[in-house]
Amino acid sequence: MPSLKIAVLGGGNIGGNIGRKWVAAGHEVAFGVNDHNGKNAQALRNDLGAGVKIGSVDEALAAGPEVILLAVPAVRVGDIIARHAAQLDDKIIIDATNNFASPDKSAFKALQEHTPNAKIYRAFNNLGWENFVNSDYNGIQADAFYCGDTSAIETAEQLIADTGVNPVYLGGPEKVDLVDSFLALFVALAMEQKRGRLLSFKLLTRDSF
C-alpha cells in the first residue's frame, strides 16, 4: 500500500501508540492533541523526532488527511464532530473511542449522522493499548475485530495490520455492537476477573495451524 496521509486525533495510549506504528510503516501522520506541549506530545517527539507533526485538532485536519483516527477522550468527541463535520466527511474515519457512560459506547452513530459521505470503521477500541505496542503472544499474533464500510476495507485492513495485530472483519456498520461486545469481554476478563490487561483474542479455525 502507498503511504497515506493520516490525522491521528489524540496522542494518548491508543492514538499515540497506533500513530507510532503508522509512522514506522511509512505513513505521513499528523497528531492533533489537546496540549501540544504536554507529556503525551513530548513522548511522541522523543520517540519520533523533533520533526513529528504535532498540533491542534484543527491543524491536523487542515493538513488534508485521507484517513482520520478518532482516539480522543469521550468528553471531546461531540465537540470535535460538531465543529469539524465538513472536514471529516468524505474521509476514511476509524472510531477508536469508548464512552462507557453512553448506551452507544462509541462515536459511530454520531459520525454516521454528521458525516454521511465518510467511510467509517469501528476498530482499536476492544483491546488494551498494550496490544498495539506488542501484539505477539509467544509466537501467536493477536487478532483485532472490527467492522465498517466495505468500500475502503482494504485500506482499513492494512492500517490495522500495520499496528501489528491481525485484522478480523465482522461485517458492515450494522455490526458495531458486535465489535463492542469484545470490549465488554475484555473488561470482564481484564478487570472484573483480574486477569490483567496483557490479554487478547484469537480466532481459531481448522486451518489456523
Task: Show the helix and strand layout.
Layout: E1 5-9, H1 13-24, E2 28-32, H2 39-48, E3 53-55, H3 57-62, E4 67-70, H4 74-88, E5 92-95, H5 108-114, E6 119-122, E7 136-137, E8 140-141, E9 143-148, H6 153-161, E10 166-169, H7 176-192
Parallel strand pairs: 1-2, 1-4, 2-3, 4-5, 5-6, 9-10
Antiparallel strand pairs: 6-9, 7-8
Write a compact overview of the structure shown.
36% of the residues lie in helices and 19% in strands. It has seven helices and ten strands.
- The CA-CA distance between the termini, in Å, is 27 Å
Order of helices and strands: EHEHEHEHEHEEEEHEH
Q: Unreliable runs, pLDDT <50, ≥5 residues?
A: none
β-strand number: 10
Q: What number is the mean pLDDT? A: 94
The first-level CATH class is given as: Alpha Beta
Overall form: globular
> Domains counted in the coordinates: how many?
1
Q: Report the CATH topology name.
A: Rossmann fold
Q: Order the strands across the largest sheet as they lie in space.
A: 3-2-1-4-5-6-9-10
CATH superfamily: NAD(P)-binding Rossmann-like Domain
Counting helices, strands and paired strands, the structural category is alpha/beta
Query: Which architecture does the CATH hierarchy give at level 2?
Result: 3-Layer(aba) Sandwich
**Rg, alpha carbons:** 16 Å
Number of helices: 7
* Sheet of most strands: 8 strands, mixed
Strand content: 15-25%
Overall helicity = 25-40%
